[in-house]
Automatic annotation (TrEMBL):
Pfam families from the UniProt entry: SnoaL_2
InterPro entries, per the entry: NTF2-like_dom_sf, SnoaL-like
Taxonomic placement: Bacteria, Bacillati, Cyanobacteriota, Cyanophyceae, Oscillatoriophycideae
UniProt-recorded name of the protein: Nuclear transport factor 2
UniProt domain SnoaL-like: residue ranges: 28-80
Gene3D superfamilies, A to Z: 3.10.450.50
Length: 144
């Protein structure tokens, strides 16, 4: 006999995300899997040659490289997207989302821009910090 509550066991670690203006499942899943620390699942949302442009990093290309980067850099991050817009393009969908990222040492306003292909895979994701120059300098200082 299988317990029916197996999915609710995951609900605490992978809570549902709601973003005003966004219903695209791939985007919602991106935030859900990142917040759950399931970086391999996040990487599978990307096209095989998909790219991630993160702050202070060079372009990260491909699912394996994206997963490796997230495992190294996204531990204990809490992403709180609040609102977004979907802009259909000729052969793609552009999605822009605004919100906040909280780490163990700071919180910062962030914008995410995604480009999805017709199969709803992420071909490009860009993360931009929306912070003052002083905030950005503080983020680059090594922890002491």
């Amino acid at each position: 006999m299988k317990p029916e509550s197996t999915s609710s066991a995951n609900d605490s670690s992978e809570r549902s995300i709601s973003i005003e203006g966004i219903t695209e499942p791939t985007i919602l899943r991106y935030f859900e899997t990142l917040n759950a620390g399931d970086f391999d699942a996040t990487a599978t949302l990307f096209a095989g040659d998909g790219t991630l442009k993160a702050p202070f990093e060079s372009l990260i290309i491909g699912r394996e490289a994206i997963a490796a980067y997230l495992h190294k850099e996204a531990q204990d991050m809490i992403l709180s997207p609040t609102q977004g817009v979907i802009e259909p393009q000729e052969d793609a969908i552009k999605v822009q989302v605004a919100g906040k990222v909280q780490t163990s040492w700071c919180g910062v306003n962030v914008s995410w821009t995604f480009v999805l292909d017709q199969q709803r895979k992420i071909v490009a994701a860009t993360v931009k910090l929306l912070a003052s120059p002083q905030d950005l300098l503080a983020m680059q200082r090594p922890n002491s």
